[in-house]
Amino acid sequence: MYDVIIIGGGVSGAACARELSRYQASVCVLEKEEDVCCGTSKANSAIVHAGYDAVPGSLMAKLNVKGNEMMEQLSKDLDFPFRRIGSLVICLNEEDMPGLEELYERGMENGVPGIRIISGEEVKAMEPNITDSVYAALYAPSAGIVCPFNLNIALAENAYENGVEFQFDTEVEDIVKLDEGYELHTSRGTYQARYVVNAAGVYADKFHNMVSEEKIHITPRRGDYCLLDKSAGNHVSRTIFSLPTKYGKGVLVTPTVHGNLLVGPTAIDIEDKEGTNTTREGLDEVISKAGQNVKDLPMRQVITSFAGLRAHEDGTEFIIGEPEDAKGFIDCAGIESPGLTSCPAIGEMVAELLRDKMGLEKKENFIATRKGILDPDTLTKEERAELIRKEPAYGNIICRCEMITEGEIIDAIRRPLGAKSLDGVKRRTRAGMGRCQSGFCSPRTMEILARELGVNMADITKSGGTSRLVVGTNKDRL
Ligand SMILES: Cc1cc2nc3c(=O)[nH]c(=O)nc-3n(C[C@H](O)[C@H](O)[C@H](O)COP(=O)(O)OP(=O)(O)OC[C@H]3O[C@@H](n4cnc5c(N)ncnc54)[C@H](O)[C@@H]3O)c2cc1C
Question: Ligand 1 centre and the CA of 272: distance in Å?
Answer without folding.
Answer: 15
